[in-house]
Write a structure and sequence with these properties.
- With 460 residues, this protein is α/β, with parallel strands linked by helices.
- 40% of the residues lie in helices and 18% in strands.
- It is built from 16 helices and 19 strands.
């Protein structure tokens, strides 16, 4: 079996947790396959987070259109000895038949707000749960981390350098896409560049420099090979000496009508070195040469460099963004909120859920977001300062309208961030954005909770 790309689309029926299949067989046997609504949301904020960025919807919709159980999957399930022939026969023709409401990719959202809601026969809704959480969780995690880097950079360009440290091939692709969605300018991941249309960018490795007898020989050779895209890595031996040699090569290029594009710092005191290197380049008559910095950057290191006045034009951001190092997971849940017309609530301590199908309304004033209102989906809220965020994107496996391009979603996200006040975007001690329930949803919550508690009391 090939291991380069472990999972193809034909395998995704089995890309689920075992209990989804065992529950599905029991639903099937007991004829409990009625319409259910599940809501996907994040319960709480990790430390220093005050907003999230929705991502991964395109992946979800592509999966829902294609997921099925081919004969090889059914053969595997049969040999486990867990499943009946009647249920396997049902799975042989099974396809997702539900409806999906979701936040558009790039939407800024907050804790306990639905990212998406699925309404479908309960077997369908549960069989797809594991994939949905997996896809939305990773891409939302990374898009949120990347958006914080963009805020910290204050207009400086950002490159995704995370490929080698992400958790597998699929994660590397999704990290490149999610970070670009959130405002990064380019990626070093060439396959992501081809697949998603993201601009690609990169420089050279230290191995390139060390394979030449002299550093300046390496610089001249690279400039000869790539005269239009020369970015020189200057810290292999001594950064200041490397900067002077890069300046010399830059002057030689200028004499030939070429231009040195940039130099890259990858170690040391980035702020102090960037100032010294900027002076070296300017003194050499090369003010247009940009300084790229990489090595351990995330939003906190970027913000510190900017605050200290670093002369860095472009940040290469890798490991800490690609694995969301300071908050590598979210408390994301996919919970049943309605079944066969009956509102459903979970009352576990710290894990109370919101009943029914819902809509999220955003209130704006003078071009700024003020608060969000979580309401029952079919409530009529016609205030001019409110607009709904969830839209119906799929019905009966059919995507209802063409999905926006990655570029369009990127522009939409940028606009979302403009409207979010700065006090919710700070890296450390930001305020919590106000989210409240509508009167109708609050009433529904109270009624369902009261009924559950009365039923519990009758047993005791």
């Amino acid at each position: 079996m090939a291991d380069v790309m472990e999972v193809g689309i034909e395998d995704l029926g089995l890309f689920t947790d075992l209990y989804q299949l065992t529950m599905a067989q029991s639903y099937f046997e007991h004829r409990k396959n009625r319409l259910a609504t599940f809501s996907l949301f994040i319960r709480t904020y990790p430390p220093h987070r005050h907003f999230f960025v929705a991502a991964g919807l395109n992946t979800v919709l592509e999966y829902l259109q294609q997921v099925h159980f081919p004969s090889s999957a059914l053969a595997y399930l049969r040999q486990t000895g867990r499943f009946s022939e009647a249920f396997l026969t049902y799975l042989a023709t099974w396809q997702f038949r539900g409806e999906v409401w979701a936040l558009p990719e790039g939407t800024v959202f907050f804790a306990n707000e639905p990212i998406l809601e699925v309404t479908a026969p309960i077997i369908d809704a549960q069989l797809v749960e594991s994939f949905l959480v997996n896809a939305i969780h990773l891409q939302t995690l990374i898009a949120t981390k990347a958006a914080r880097c963009v805020q910290a950079a204050q207009g400086r360009r950002l490159m995704d350098f995370a490929l080698r440290r992400t958790h597998g091939t699929d994660a590397a692709m999704k990290v490149a896409r999610a970070s670009y969605l959130a405002g990064f300018d380019s990626t070093s991941n060439v396959l992501a560049g081809q697949h998603y249309g993201i601009p690609i960018a990169g420089t050279m490795a230290h191995s390139y420099v060390t394979c030449f007898a002299e550093e300046i020989e390496a610089f001249r050779s690279f400039a000869h090979t790539f005269p239009q895209q020369t970015v020189l890595l200057i810290d292999t031996y001594d950064t200041i000496t490397g900067a002077k040699r890069a300046a010399e090569v830059g002057q030689e290029m200028a004499q030939r009508g070429r231009r040195l594009l940039g130099v890259r710092l990858d170690s040391g005191d980035m702020t102090a070195l960037s100032k010294t290197v900027r002076n070296i380049l300017d003194t050499a008559g090369l003010p247009e040469v940009q300084i790229v910095a990489s090595g351990g950057f995330d939003e906190y290191a970027i913000a510190q460099a900017v605050q200290e006045g670093a002369r860095i034009d472009v940040f290469g951001v890798g490991t800490k963004m690609g694995v969301a190092a300071d908050a590598p997971y979210y408390d994301m849940a996919y919970k049943l909120v309605k079944y066969d017309g009956r509102p459903i609530m979970k009352l576990s301590s710290g894990k109370v859920t919101l009943v029914e199908e819902k809509q999220v309304w955003r209130c704006t004033s003078d071009g700024h977001d003020v608060e969000d209102l979580i309401a029952l989906r079919h409530e009529r809220l016609d205030q001019p300062d409110l607009h709904p965020l969830l839209t119906c994107v799929m019905h009966d496996r059919r995507v209802l309208q063409p999905l926006p391009s990655l570029e369009a979603s990127r522009a939409y996200h940028a606009d979302q961030m403009v409207h979010l006040p700065d006090r919710y975007k700070t890296l450390h001690h930001g305020e919590t954005y106000p989210v409240r329930l509508s009167a109708a949803l609050e009433s529904a919550q109270q009624q369902v909770e009261m009924a559950i508690r009365e039923d519990t009391a009758s047993v005791q």
